[in-house]
Amino acid sequence: MDEMNLYIDLDNSTAIKLYSRTRQGILEKDGSYTIEAEVQLPVNLSGHYVLFAVTDATDVMVERNVYNNSAYTLIYVDD
Questions:
Q1: What is the pTM of this model?
Q2: 20 DSSP β-pair partners
Q3: Contact assessment for residue 46 and residue 79, using Cβ atoms and an 8 Å cutoff
Q4: What does the pLDDT look like over 36-60, one tens digit per residue?
Q5: C-alpha span between 1 and 26 (Å, rounded)
Q6: Could you tell me the sign of the dihedral formed by the alpha carbons of 12, 6, 50, 68, in that order?
Q7: Sign, CA torsion 26/32/33/35
Q8: Interval 2-18: pLDDT, tens
Q9: Between 52 and 61, residue with greater pLDDT
Q10: Euclidean distance between CA atoms 70 and 50, whole angstroms
Q11: How far apart are CA 10 and CA 4, in angstroms?
Q12: Torsion region of 30: left, alpha or beta (phi above 0 gives left; psi -120 to 50 gives alpha)
C-alpha cells in the first residue's frame, strides 16, 4: 500500500493538500507507476508556486532509500 499526496506551497511555509490517493499492491524493485489527477486550485491564486508530490507519505514501504519519495516543480498560475 502506498499513499501519494500532491501539494501546492503558498508561501514557503504553508502547503495545501490538493490530492491524495492510496495505491494497493506491490511495487517491484526499480518499479514505478503513474497517477494522473485534475485538482481544484484555491480561488484567486496567481503567481509563482512550488507544486510537489510525496509518495509513501505514511512511511509504510520498506526501502533502503527513503529520500527518493518526493518531487517538485515550479509553476506559474495566471488568473
A1: 0.69
A2: 5
A3: yes
A4: 888 888 888 888 898 888 877 666 6
A5: 7
A6: positive
A7: positive
A8: 677 788 887 777 888 88
A9: 52
A10: 13
A11: 19
A12: left
